[in-house]
């Protein structure tokens, strides 16, 4: 089967959602939430809520059974208890449905005979009729271009990142958090127990998909290791692949088995394979999202020499330590550049005029633009990292937004005018007002093509990983391997 | 000198602030901000704003010179440019002031003859008259019990944590962020260039201070290494000492020299000394705050065996990996406990009934209380870590607070009723509404004596460090060293 009929999963022309409560607005979980999500995401084709009681919900007629739906149905979402899923599958086969997604759980992941047998029976029925199965026990698909979504509060803007994410909760978090840092997705799929559609199929599909330029994979385990590795190698030759492999400890592997029935596999085997195919391995979900941000916004970098600019002497010392520990280089500035920067700033007290640079006492007056101009002209650095350490300013919180917005405008203007890469770190957020401002600031940055991170450590680690990715790729290109 | 007259720094009976703008409400930085901070923090003694122009500000008479102030003045804050500080020091000596704090910068940290000479001259004058100097180039003191503060938006509640923090910005961030996780301070001091009052004096003072039970130190460098190490060893024998040593890389050391004129010292020397005296060394400012939370809330722990409880299968797999990597143990539950937990939950689909435990599909109905009761009764675990992974729930954001509050109430009630330690991790925050809820949730937890962390990694690392601290201390106790 592999990738056949996966188009019906990502680009269905019509969708039936089975198990929509008729009081769906109050009980927006399960079927009702899917219906709301498709509406919010702008699904263009017909949407058919299904419930034996019939009636109407969100302005749509409710059908008692998928077989009662008048037109053709490409894709069916099951949000009913497991006990009704075999009959539903039979109804879908009879209706000529192309793919089913089971949000429903209670199958092989429970590790018991009954659930395992039911999952197998449904799969056999589907295979006999060429119907694909997503799941069971998963969130399914977010594909903004086609208007399919598992979440009501997401953007309907499309982008280049394709995400294969076994876990539904982590897929939701990924979409929410990455979107707020400017990542836009071609398609995201949570595939749970992977009874049919699995990591290998999806890796093959994403590798071929012209709308996907960057592949993210969260993997608890794979069943057919050699086949998956082949798909991974093929994908990684074409596109950056960022892998978060979990279940790497004994208790984590036990949890993965209970969660999606996965066999986690030895961690060092994964390490070796990912290194060999030049997939970028990350250790945490934050780093996973960081790399999606990094590949989405960064051009191919030219080097590790960074100018650090920010406010706060202590924050500046910490920033230097962290960037250096993560493999970047913070070269001291030559005397001539220090002299010119001092002229621009016009004062020395309460500042550090070197690399790293701290403009604490003077930034409000001088702004960042003229400094970033000097950085852009100086050939000794490849990149600037500007840190906005929001929580360490003594001024009353209400005054912060005004100050930070001025500095942010300077950064956006400098990136546009000078073309030398700038990365923004927004850190030390401690108040709800600051958090709201941070979300605005992130959006202002990504709309200007600027990547944002939550810490110097995360920004530096991501930058270093990006460099390593290209260094390894180029070395392979040269050696012809 | 050492600790003599440091009481006048932390518990002055009267304060003059020199360099308060007469339009202070609009220009709340420098002197005006200090005045506002003392008022907000409830300073009981007289406050004397000083400005040659005289007038009135925030309802207080402004004096042209400290010598014009009618009553005695214990403590003077200089918020004027460096050029006027020598004359101010002379005036303070004439007035019989006990301690001066220089918010003013532009001294030895610039690395130039003039600033170095001025700093020395002021110090010599102060020493001749037994007056102490805090700084220059720093934020000074936050001592809620006496109503002294460098920040207007802080709590006036006191606590057991004393913090020695060379950097002012980091001191501000520390106070803001740690306070929101329930840490309360005996005193916090940012001491900048340390021309007089230095890390050694402060370590000695904090070691003796009956109001300080836990010592935090952020250090860029110390001048007299052997004397500091002796003070550190003495303090660490009496109280937990948590050290964030920065300037550990070449560029970080360069920044530390420009920031506070510090010589950072070789990192591996620090490592050895801190290990030897059983001070807890941390690597980041987040971990530093984590340990203040940990020592503030945790009783002496009995072991590393943790029960993990949360929502989200993927989040649960990640949590197991991270807790295990950080040195904790997540033992699988015996069959009997799993059976009883299954009875309590009443369903298996969409859950993981083991350790780690995931109640995704059922938590809303079952709550956490009956599960935490089982954990409390089970002798095989020492501690529960409950994770509220806010951003991965598919329900609309507006419904979240209600759901989370119910679970949080269960946690607080269980901790109270059963007495077995519970730690709360609030993570995956992606929306401003969630952030505001997180702040409320943290407060609800710390008011009930429960520690909160931002990730499983941070919670586990902190717990492991706490255990190591007590293990080493007990081993020394036994060997009599």
Q: Would you kindly provide a written description of the structure presented here, covering whatever features stand out?
A:
- Chain A is of the alpha/beta class and about 475 residues long.
- Chain A has three domains: about 5-135, Rossmann fold (3-Layer(aba) Sandwich); about 155-295, Rossmann fold (3-Layer(aba) Sandwich); about 305-470, Succinyl-CoA synthetase domains (Rossmann fold), CATH 3.40.50.
- The first copy, chain A, has helices at about 5-10, 30-40, 85-95, 115-130, 170-180, 200-210, 225-240, 250-260, 265-275, 285-295, 315-325, 335-345, 365, 370-375, 395-420, 430-445, 455-480; strands at about 15-20, 45-50, 55, 60, 75-80, 100, 130-135, 140, 160-165, 185-190, 215-220, 240-245, 280, 305-310, 355-360, 385-390, 420-425, 450-455.
- In chain A, the strands form four sheets. A six-stranded mixed sheet of chain A has the order 8-10-9-11-12-13, with helices on both faces.
- In chain A, helix 11 (about 315-325) packs parallel to helix 17 and helix 14 runs parallel beside helix 15 (about 395-420).
- Chains A and B meet through helix 5, helix 8, helix 11 and helix 16 of A and helix 5, helix 8, helix 11 and helix 16 of B.
């Amino acid at each position: 089967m592999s990738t056949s009929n996966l188009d019906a999963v990502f680009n269905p022309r019509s969708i039936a959602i089975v198990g929509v409560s008729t009081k769906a607005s109050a009980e927006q979980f399960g079927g009702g939430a899917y219906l709301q999500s498709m509406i919010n995401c702008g699904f263009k084709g017909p949407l058919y809520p299904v419930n034996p009681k019939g009636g109407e919900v969100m302005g749509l007629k409710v059908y008692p059974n998928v077989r009662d739906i008048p037109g053709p149905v490409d894709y069916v979402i099951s949000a009913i208890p497991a006990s009704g899923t075999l009959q539903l599958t039979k109804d879908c086969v009879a209706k000529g449905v192309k793919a089913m997604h089971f949000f429903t759980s209670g199958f092989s992941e429970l590790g018991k005979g009954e659930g395992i047998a039911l999952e197998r029976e449904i799969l056999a029925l589907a295979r006999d009729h060429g119907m694909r199965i997503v799941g069971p026990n998963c969130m399914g698909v977010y594909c903004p271009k086609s208007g399919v979504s598992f979440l009501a509060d997401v953007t309907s803007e499309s982008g280049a990142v394709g995400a294969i994410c076994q876990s539904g909760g982590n897929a939701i978090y990924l979409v929410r958090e990455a979107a707020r840092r400017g990542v836009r997705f071609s398609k995201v799929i949570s595939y749970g127990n992977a009874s049919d559609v699995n990591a290998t199929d999806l890796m093959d599909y994403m590798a071929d998909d012209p709308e996907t330029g960057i592949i993210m994979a969260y993997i608890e385990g794979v069943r057919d290791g050699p086949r998956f590795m082949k798909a991974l190698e093929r994908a990684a030759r074409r596109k950056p692949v960022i892998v978060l492999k979990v279940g790497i400890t004994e208790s984590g592997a036990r949890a993965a088995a209970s969660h999606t029935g996965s066999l986690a596999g030895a961690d060092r085997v994964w390490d070796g394979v990912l290194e060999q195919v030049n997939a970028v391995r990350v250790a945490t979900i934050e780093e996973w999202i960081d790399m999606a941000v990094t590949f989405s916004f960064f051009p191919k970098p030219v080097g590790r020499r960074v100018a650090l600019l920010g406010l706060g002497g202590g924050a500046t010392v910490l920033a230097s330590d962290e960037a250096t520990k993560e493999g970047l280089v913070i070269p001291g500035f030559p005397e001539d550049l220090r002299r010119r920067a001092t002229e621009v700033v016009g004062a020395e007290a309460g500042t550090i005029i070197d690399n790293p640079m701290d403009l604490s006492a003077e930034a409000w007056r001088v702004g960042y633009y003229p400094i970033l101009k000097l950085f852009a002209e100086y050939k000794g650095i490849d990149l600037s990292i500007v840190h906005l350490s929001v929580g360490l300013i003594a001024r009353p919180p209400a005054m912060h937004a005004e100050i930070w917005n001025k500095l942010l405008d300077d950064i956006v203007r400098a990136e546009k005018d000078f073309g030398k890469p700038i990365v923004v770190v927004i850190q030390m957020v401690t108040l709800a007002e600051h958090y709201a401002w941070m979300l605005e600031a992130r959006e202002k940055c990504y709309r200007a093509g600027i990547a944002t991170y939550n810490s110097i450590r995360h920004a530096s680690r991501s930058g270093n990983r990006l460099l390593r990715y290209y260094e390894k790729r180029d070395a392979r290109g040269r050696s012809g391997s």
